[in-house]
């Protein structure tokens, strides 16, 4: 049944992308913080975003401590060398004590429709991995779907092309990128959170095979933005390093430590007369998982599935729309369902706990387009449980 839903969804999105009539007067294209800095005038450019969160588990049987966290604050800087050449970097501080470089790329404008990008780049998959600023999505925390299926913030070193084709109402990206680390002496990917543990994040990354990532967005229908993305390649393994090319045994061992990845994503965002709707759908097929599980069974792995599937739909409405207030108050509800053991190889059994249903409902109060107060209730149930766990979340987010 899910295969039928997936196929129908892909055909629906593809048909709209190919046959919808463009309206050049519309402007439904979205830009994240880095892209906005690229369009900002001046040589030295500064921006940022971040949020402070409160998470309180709720239980009728036990007392639970809440958690207060300066979850993340990001400083963004850009420099324009000339009319065609720019550099963007994003420095992230998580939980006060952790520091990451989230983006660091050089962009060169080839013509009005094409830019060359090289460096540390966000993988163009889905909505949240690229547009993850707290003023962009509802709910205090990012959707759980974008933690386990598309492991935001997912970025690697790569090179490729980015551009807007305004006459066709298209935005596109295509990159050759470094892949996930599946084995570096221990297994780095598995069933509970899929590929998340394999993100290399450009921290002394190693590469044994390049991967392809591409996305196209269509924004020519009033109020609507549609995206279709793909990611294809193999994971990376340290076992390839230094082995003789004619050593068939060592090569076969190294081959057992990698998996093939074919990931497809479709997303939609619709905004009209106060209504705001967002939806994402992902399907990931993993090959060589039976061999990988056997090889890593005593090395921290052994339970990677062969298919992952997930989707969500988010519905909100600005109740202050009729008041002509500059503020927005948006009650919302989001339903998510995903399974990192959608299908499993013959040497393991599917773990029902890896299939999750999540309902999130709450309020977003926008004091300005760059400042939001948030509160929500989140209900999570996995396939091995009969009851939902409940968490109350509150916080604020900024983007400038």
Spell out the key features of this protein.
globular, 400 residues, single chain, Porin, mainly beta, 18 strands, two-stranded parallel sheet, 16-stranded antiparallel beta barrel
How are the SSEs placed, and which strands pair?
Blueprint: H1 2-19, H2 33-39, E1 44-58, E2 67-80, E3 85-94, E4 98-111, E5 114-122, H3 145-148, E6 155-165, E7 170-177, E8 181-183, E9 211-221, E10 224-234, E11 236-237, H4 248-255, E12 260-272, E13 275-287, H5 289-296, E14 307-317, E15 328-343, E16 355-368, E17 371-382, E18 389-399
CATH superfamily: Porin
- DSSP summary: helix tally: 5
* CATH first level: Mainly Beta
Our Rg estimate from Cα atoms comes to: 22 Å
| Percent of residues in β-strands | over 45%
Overview of this protein structure:
By secondary structure, the protein is mainly β. It has one domain: Porin (Beta Barrel), CATH 2.40.160.10. 11% of the residues lie in helices and 50% in strands. Strand 3 and strand 4 form a beta hairpin. It is globular. About 6% of the residues have low confidence.
């Amino acid at each position: 049944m899910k295969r039928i839903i997936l196929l129908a969804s892909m055909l629906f999105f593809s048909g709209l992308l190919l046959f919808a009539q463009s309206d050049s007067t519309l402007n439904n294209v979205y830009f994240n913080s880095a892209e906005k800095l690229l369009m900002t005038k001046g040589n030295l450019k500064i921006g940022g975003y971040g949020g402070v969160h409160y998470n309180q588990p709720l239980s009728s049987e036990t007392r639970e401590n809440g958690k207060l966290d300066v979850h993340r604050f990001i400083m963004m800087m850009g420099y324009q060398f000339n009319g065609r050449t720019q550099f963007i970097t994003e420095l992230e501080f998580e939980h006060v004590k952790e520091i990451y470089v989230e983006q660091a790329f050089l962009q060169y404008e080839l013509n009005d429709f094409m830019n060359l990008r090289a460096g540390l780049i966000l993988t163009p998959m889905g909505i949240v991995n690229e547009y993850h600023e707290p003023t962009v999505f509802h709910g205090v925390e990012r959707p759980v779907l974008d933690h386990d299926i598309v492991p935001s913030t997912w970025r690697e070193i790569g090179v490729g092309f980015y551009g807007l084709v305004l006459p066709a109402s298209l935005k596109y990206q295509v990159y050759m990128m470094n892949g996930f680390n599946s084995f570096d002496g221990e297994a780095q990917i598995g069933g509970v959170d899929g590929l998340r543990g394999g993100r290399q994040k450009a921290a002394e990354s190693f590469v044994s095979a390049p991967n392809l990532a591409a996305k196209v967005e269509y924004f020519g229908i009033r109020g609507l933005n549609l995206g279709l993305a793909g990611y294809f390649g193999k994971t990376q393994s340290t076992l390839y390093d230094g082995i003789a090319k004619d050593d068939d045994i060592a090569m076969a061992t190294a081959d057992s430590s990698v998996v093939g990845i074919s990931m497809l994503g479709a997303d939609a965002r619709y905004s009209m007369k106060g209504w705001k709707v967002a939806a994402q759908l992902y399907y990931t097929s993993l090959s060589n998982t039976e061999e990988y599980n056997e090889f890593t069974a005593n090395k921290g792995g052994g339970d990677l599935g062969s298919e992952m599937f997930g989707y969500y739909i988010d519905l909100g409405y600005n109740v202050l729309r009729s008041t002509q207030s500059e503020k927005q108050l948006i009650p919302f509800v989001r339903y998510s369902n995903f399974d990192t053991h959608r299908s499993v190889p013959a040497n393991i059994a599917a773990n029902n706990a890896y299939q999750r249903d999540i309902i999130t409902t709450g309020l977003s109060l926008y004091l300005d387009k760059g400042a939001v107060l948030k509160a929500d209730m989140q209900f999570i149930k996995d396939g091995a449980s009969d009851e939902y766990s409940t968490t109350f979340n509150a916080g604020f987010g900024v983007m400038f």
